[in-house]
Amino acid sequence: MRKGLLAFLAGICLGACTPNTVLSPSYDFSQVNRIGIMAFSNAWADLNGVENLFAKYLIRHGFKVVERAQLENILKEHNISVSGYLAPETTREIGRILGVDVLLIGEVSSYTPARTELTMTASRRSESRPIMTQDVMRMPDGSYVGYTRPVGTQVSNSMDVRPTEYTINAKVAMIAKLVDVETAEIVWIGSDSTESSRALDGADYIAKKLVKSFAKELAKQEKK
């Protein structure tokens, strides 16, 4: 991989919050140019296609990517099954057919959908009213005049109960790993979780952070 690209990757990653990632210190990443992206293991319809988010950010960082749909079509044509454990002979065959150096494999490890909850909010309310009384006043001419005068204050307390609606964000966690096609060795692995009002927005945020972290670690390794 060109030094210029690595310097660029390091620059755009400065200041980023690093998720949990591990890069193999002994692996020669200079050979990594084309990455094949597999469909992520995922049990939730809200997060279908999250692997495409990784493709977006890998391409943005200068990698050549064979995306999931193309990869699956080619594997289907060659009658290669990639479900479950990937044996070295399977990864080598995929590498030979697609011309990829590593495979990106991942899973949505946990997901809690966003939900709306209703709670009752109570507030205390006080109201004051004057207490009035009728009285009679004798006038100088001997006549009497009735009038009203305050004699105190009446305070009444009450509880005002109103419904309040609020949203609890979706929680998404993902794991991604790069597997060498020749040996089936895991050469990089990362995991992260986040909360977001929309599931795919959370997944996009994780994909962005993980790919940035990978690029930053890669640039550091190349400088050694």
Describe it for me?
The protein contains 5 helices and 8 strands; from the N terminus they run H-E-E-H-E-H-H-E-E-E-E-E-H. With 224 residues, it is an alpha/beta fold. The chain has 2 domains: 3-113 and 169-223, 3-Layer(aba) Sandwich (Rossmann fold), CATH 3.40.50.10610; 117-166, no CATH class. A 6-stranded mixed β-sheet has the order 1-8-7-4-2-3, sandwiched between helices. Strands 5-6 form a two-stranded antiparallel ribbon. Helix 1 crosses helix 5 and helix 2 packs across helix 5. The chain is rod-shaped and about 120 Å long. It starts with a helix and ends with a helix.
Instruction: Compute the number of helices.
Output: 5
Q: Any idea what the CATH superfamily of the largest domain is called?
A: ABC-type transport auxiliary lipoprotein component
**CATH class term of the largest domain:** Alpha Beta
Order of H and E elements: HEEHEHHEEEEEH
DSSP strand count: 8
Share of β-strand residues:
35-45%
Helix percentage: 25-40%
Architecture of the largest domain, according to CATH? 3-Layer(aba) Sandwich
Enter the CATH topology name of the largest domain: Rossmann fold
Tertiary shape: rod-shaped
Largest sheet composition: 6 strands, mixed
- Count of the separate structural domains: 2
Low-confidence stretches: 1-17
* Cross-sheet strand order for the largest sheet: 1-8-7-4-2-3
Give me the Rg, rounded: 34 Å
What structural category do the secondary elements indicate? alpha/beta
How far apart are the termini?
15 Å
Mean pLDDT: 83
